[in-house]
Amino acid sequence: MPRAFSRSLREVAFFFGITFFVILAAFPFYWMVITAFKPNSDLYDVTNVPFWFNEPPTLEHLTYLFKETLFARWLLNSLMIGVCVTMITLVTAVPAGYSLARMTSRKGEALGIAIFLTYLVPPTLLFLPLSRIIAELGLQNSMWSLVLVYPTFTIPFCSWLLMGFFKALPPEIEEAAIVDGCSLFGAFIKMAIPLSLPAILTVVIFTFTLTLQEFVYALTFVSSSSQKPVTLGVSTDLIRGDVFFWGEIMAGALIAAVPVAVAYNLFLDRFISGITGGAIK
């Protein structure tokens, strides 16, 4: 009986602990949904309970976003920036991670750590020299400046991540492919890349998410509304002086956050496999 009681107590404690963290994680999405569909008369009435609808929901905030602002253009800009940065990161980080993983001396590990340390440099220290480069290239006030700048922090981390995963792949696989007639590059394409798809998918999700949520560089290099990504457009064009358009802000945040949340849930197993694969294979 004491053992059964102790087991039941642990199960109850585990259940309440999981419930607490689920509520903590889901509450921001719930708050965005509530605020995005509340009419202003309900939203700004301090006598109403803020946690549910006191009046019928409305679509006026979504209508305002798509008709009175450049929200659709901001979404398109973010998508284009994310796709371009992801492609640049993959083309650079995949061969870099593979090369570092196949270095037999300690120089490869030291070089990998040095590359990762560049990821830890705060953006507030880098945007001054980067702004000089952007000015020299004539990319001021253009979203293409972000395509140039964002790989400076996505490539180091992704190269380090892929290096750990490629180290977990036995080199005998590529050696066997070379014996069968493949070149070194052919063995890399036909053997290493297919076996590393979980890690590559992790890099894609991580890079796209990081570019979607970045704010400091976007605020520094882009000022025209037509060139802004969604994070910058929502947080600047929907705040005018001391007036916050909370309904529209939350609607924009909800639309930008839902696709990322869905992608993470659909590819969660592969994402975890890519993050931890280098440690357990």
TrEMBL record:
Protein name, as recorded: Carbohydrate ABC transporter permease
Domain ABC transmembrane type-1: residue ranges: 75-267
GO cellular component, one term: plasma membrane
PANTHER family, per the entry: INNER MEMBRANE ABC TRANSPORTER PERMEASE PROTEIN YCJP, MALTOSE TRANSPORT SYSTEM PERMEASE-RELATED
Subcellular location: Cell membrane
BP terms from Gene Ontology: transmembrane transport
Sequence intervals crossing the membrane: 12-33, 74-98, 110-130, 142-163, 243-267
Gene3D superfamilies per the UniProt record, alphabetical: MetI-like
Record keywords: Cell membrane, Membrane, Transmembrane, Transmembrane helix, Transport
Keyword flag Transport: yes
Membrane topology: Multi-pass membrane protein
Organism per entry: Bradyrhizobium australiense
CDD domains in the cross-refs: TM_PBP2
Recorded family membership: Belongs to the binding-protein-dependent transport system permease family.
